[in-house]
Each structure stands twice: as C-alpha cells, then as structure tokens.
Specification:
Elements: E1 2-6, H1 13-18, H2 21-38, E2 49-57, H3 63-68, H4 71-77, E3 99-108, E4 115-122
Parallel strand pairs: 2-3
Antiparallel strand pairs: 1-4, 2-4
Helix pairs in contact: 2-4
Length: 129
C-alpha cells in the first residue's frame, strides 16, 4: 500500500473551473511537487488499484465538488506523458481499468488546518475489487 499526506486539502471543482488555464497548470505543478515531497514513486507504476482520498477541511464540500476537484491530484499520480508532464508514475493511468475503485471522504478539520490523505492499494487479478 502507498499511503501519504499532503499539507493542504484538494481543490474543489468550482474553484478549479473558474481558474485560468495558466493557473490550473501552476496548481497541478504545485500538487505534483507536494506529492513528490510526500512519497517516492515505485519502480513500476501500480497497474490496478483502489484509491481512497480523505480531504480534511473546515467545511464539508458537496460530492460533485469533492470528486471533480480530484483531477489535479489524479493527474499527478499517473505516468508522465507529453500531455501530462506533471505525472509521477505512481499508477499506470486514472481510468477504470487501473483505478478499479475511487473513493473520496470529506472530513472535518479545524479552521486553517486542512490537509489530504491518499491511500493507494494495489489490486491483483482481472475482476473488480
């Protein structure tokens, strides 16, 4: 299992959608640096896994805002490519063939003390976990 923490909560979808494309790129790069500081990528990306993300913040977001805001983080976990230079190669891809289950959990945290916990559990075999 790969388990790590980021020092801030994931962004929410509404904020992400209102960002200029340049600011989105900067944010994704900042998330990649936080992930890089928190975990060492495995020698080979995880081919099939379950990903659980726990977002700690002072207010609980709605579900679409929570899940939609995971995009920059998930983009940082996948293999790097020409279209996604910030990928770190922790997992193969962020599609349903690689991530067989994605769960996100909103959790209360004191004001200005938000953070994020990410757990990646490898899954063996072809069937869904």
């Amino acid at each position: 299992m790969i388990d790590f923490e980021l020092p801030e909560p994931t962004i929410l979808l509404n904020r992400w959608q209102r960002m200029h494309w340049r600011d989105r790129r900067r944010h994704t790069e900042a998330v990649a640096w936080m992930v890089r500081a928190a975990v060492t990528p495995p020698a080979q990306p995880v081919a099939r896994c379950q990903v659980h993300i726990q977002r700690y913040s002072e207010r609980l977001p709605d579900w679409d805002g929570l899940y939609g805001g995971l995009k920059p983080l998930l983009d940082c976990l996948v293999r790097p490519s020409k279209r996604n230079p910030h990928g770190l190669g922790i997992i193969e891809d962020d599609d349903p063939q690689c991530i067989v289950r994605l769960t996100a959990e909103p959790t209360f945290a004191p004001r200005k003390k938000g953070w994020t916990r990410v757990q990646i559990v490898p899954v063996e075999g072809e069937g869904e976990a």
